[in-house]
Specification:
single chain, alpha+beta, Arc Repressor Mutant, subunit A, Alpha-Beta Plaits, 2 domains, 4-stranded antiparallel beta sheet, 4 helices, about 20% strand
């Protein structure tokens, strides 16, 4: 429920689940202390904040330089996700920009100037069909006959 609306009052959640308000407070505190809930945050509409262009950048780096390259990427506001991968590329990064020209400038002026990058491949997103955070669901009861 908090994943759908983190501003929902604990009293309402308790009522919907048929438990007490202090029970919800205790459960959420336990999830925070166990680092299952990392933070409560707002989800922005990219186009409304002038970051409507999304792209994935696949990056190969020189041996033993992945951490340095990732460290530089982490400092860029336009870089939303960074994944160290095993496969054709060492790193996949999700980036957002205002326009295609801004994306080009980011690539040419910043990302491609990072030391130890060997080559990159950029895939621009035409339309995002689903973009979600990890969601935990309640365990379903086993169906009869399953």
């Amino acid at each position: 429920m908090l994943q759908e609306d983190s501003r929902k009052p604990f009293v309402e959640i308790a009522k919907e689940l048929g438990v007490s308000d202090p029970t919800i407070h205790a459960r959420v505190k336990k999830l925070q202390e166990g680092h299952i809930i990392k933070k409560f945050t707002a989800v922005l509409a990219p186009a409304k904040v002038e970051k409507g262009v999304a792209a994935f950048v696949e990056i190969n780096v020189k041996p033993d330089t992945v951490e340095n390259v990732i460290g530089t990427l982490e400092g860029m506001d336009e870089v939303l996700e960074i994944h160290e991968t095993y496969g054709d590329y060492d790193i996949i990064a999700k980036i957002r920009a205002k326009t295609n020209e801004d994306l080009r400038n980011l690539m040419a002026g910043e990302i491609l100037t990072i030391p130890n990058i060997v080559n990159t491949k950029v895939t621009t997103v035409l339309k995002t069909r689903k973009e979600a955070q990890l969601k935990l669901t309640r365990k379903r009861e086993k169906r009869v006959g399953s």
